[in-house]
């Protein structure tokens, strides 16, 4: 097995535990790099950078700094939407939505060891994404949420996570409205990895919030 293939496989295997999205519009005005660092100190396994506001040059600098933090903590760093930023920052992967670049097209931009995740609202979309070659499947919104402009998305419930897990082989990442009160239910439904935003990024102490969520995930399993 080539080193790039081995690195690629190891990255997919790291899609587990707590996945935190950091977005400058969802940090209560705090620096996304600091929120990412706190999340990692709390035990997050994956950090995704989402930024719809800044110029790409600035996003690239932030991406490179968060990637270095993730390397230090043996965590994955994922870039949202921008394949060019993912490539140039040497991110571990890229995350795309249903209306972003198709997985196959994004793959042409990225290096061989970089992984790709795709958002899905249910089993049919998850199967389509897996068919396109997505390395992990984000499913949600599990519960209703207003974070990052997702208030119009219909909640699919934790049972959908169980349904998708039975239908696919790729790791499943649950997302949407997940917090300390319901994360155990999602973990029990079989999610390989659980993604949060406000439950960590809005917290007074993001490191402690992340740590508590990690404990709840592990306890539910």
Spatial extent as radius of gyration:
16 Å
The chain-level structural class is alpha/beta
Separate helix tally: 10
Strand content: 15-25%
Average pLDDT rating = 96
Distance between the termini: 32 Å
Strand order of the largest sheet: 1-2-3-4-5-6-7-8
- How would a crystallographer describe the biggest sheet? 8 strands, parallel, barrel
Number of strands: 8
Helix/strand order: HEHEHEHEHEHEHEHEHH
Portion of residues in helices? 40-55%
Specify the overall morphology.
Answer: globular
Low-confidence stretches: none
Would you give an account of this structure?
With about 220 residues, this protein is α/β, with parallel strands linked by helices. It is about 45% helix and about 15% strand. It has helices spanning about 5-15, 30-40, 55-70, 85-90, 105-110, 125-130, 160-165, 185-190, 200, 205-220, and strands at about 15-20, 45-50, 75-80, 95, 115-120, 135-140, 170-175, 195. The longest helix is centred in the N-terminal third of the chain and has 17 residues, at about 55-70. The mean pLDDT is about 95.
What's the short story on this structure?
By secondary structure, the protein is of the alpha/beta class. It is 43% helix and 17% strand.
């Amino acid at each position: 097995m080539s080193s790039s293939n081995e690195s690629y496989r190891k990255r997919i295997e790291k899609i587990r535990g707590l996945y935190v999205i950091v977005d400058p519009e969802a940090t209560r005005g705090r620096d996304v790099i600091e929120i990412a660092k706190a999340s990692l100190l709390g035990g997050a396994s994956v950090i995704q950078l989402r930024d719809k506001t800044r110029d790409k040059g600035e996003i690239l600098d932030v991406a490179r700094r968060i990637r270095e933090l993730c390397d230090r903590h043996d965590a994955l760093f994922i870039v949202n939407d921008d394949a060019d930023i993912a490539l140039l920052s040497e991110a571990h992967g890229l995350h795309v939505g249903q209306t972003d670049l198709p997985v196959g097209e994004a793959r042409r931009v990225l290096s061989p060891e970089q992984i790709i995740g795709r958002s899905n609202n249910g089993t049919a979309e998850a199967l389509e994404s897996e068919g396109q070659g997505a390395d992990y499947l984000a499913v949600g919104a599990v519960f209703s949420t207003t974070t990052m402009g997702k208030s119009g998305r219909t909640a699919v419930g934790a049972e959908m996570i169980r349904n998708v897990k039975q239908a696919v082989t790729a790791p499943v990442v649950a997302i949407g409205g997940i917090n300390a009160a319901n994360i155990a239910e999602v973990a029990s439904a079989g999610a390989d990895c659980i993604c949060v935003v406000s439950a960590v990024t809005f917290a007074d102490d993001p490191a402690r919030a992340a740590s508590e969520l990690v404990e709840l995930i592990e306890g539910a399993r």
